[in-house]
Amino acid sequence: xxxxxxxxxxxxxxxxxxxxxxxxxxxxxxxxxxxxxxxxxxxxxxxxxxxxxxxxxxxxxxxxxxxxxxxxxxxxxxxxxxxxxxxxxxxxxxxxxxxxxxxxxxxxxxxxxxxxxxxxxxxxxxxxxxxxxxxxxxxxxxxxxxxxxxx
Length: 151
Ligand code: ADP
Hints:
Helix content: 25-40%
Shape: globular
Oligomer: single chain
Mean pLDDT: 97
Strand content: 15-25%
Radius of gyration: 15 Å
Order of helices and strands: EHEHEHEHEH
Bound molecules: adenosine-5'-diphosphate
C-alpha cells in the first residue's frame, strides 16, 4: 500500500493545497492530510475548524484521510507505515526551504519526499495571504474550497 502524508498548517486549506491533494490521489493508495500542531504558533482557525474544512472538501474521496499530529513528520511516517512525504512547490523560495527539510528528513529516516509543482492558476495562493484577506473583510471565497467558512 503506497501511503503519503501531506503535512502542513492548513490555516486554512487553500485552493493551492486542494489542487496538490487532488492531483496526488492518482499517485498513492492513501493520502493522509496531516495538520501539524506547533504549540508556539498562533493560528487563525482552531484545529477542529481546520480539520473540518479539509474533511468536508474531500468527503467524496475515500483515499483522503485527515489527521493531526505532534512531533517530527518522519516519526509519524515510521509509526504509521507512510513511505512518502508530499509537498507542493510554488517558487524558488519554496524550493530552497523544502530542499533543506527534505534532506534533513532523509538523514532521519529512509522516507522519500515527493514534490508536485503548483498549478499555474493557484501558484500565487498562500494561507497567509488568505488570512490577510479575511482579516480585512475581503472576498476570500475565490482562494479556498467552499468548505472554508468564516464566522
Ligand atoms: P506550512 O506550515 O508547512 O508552510 P502550509 O499549510 O502553508 O504549511 O503548506 C503545506 C504544503 O502546501 C507545503 O508543501 C506548501 O509548499 C504547499 N502549498 C501551499 N500553498 C500552495 C500552492 N498555492 N500551490 C502548491 N503548493 C502549495
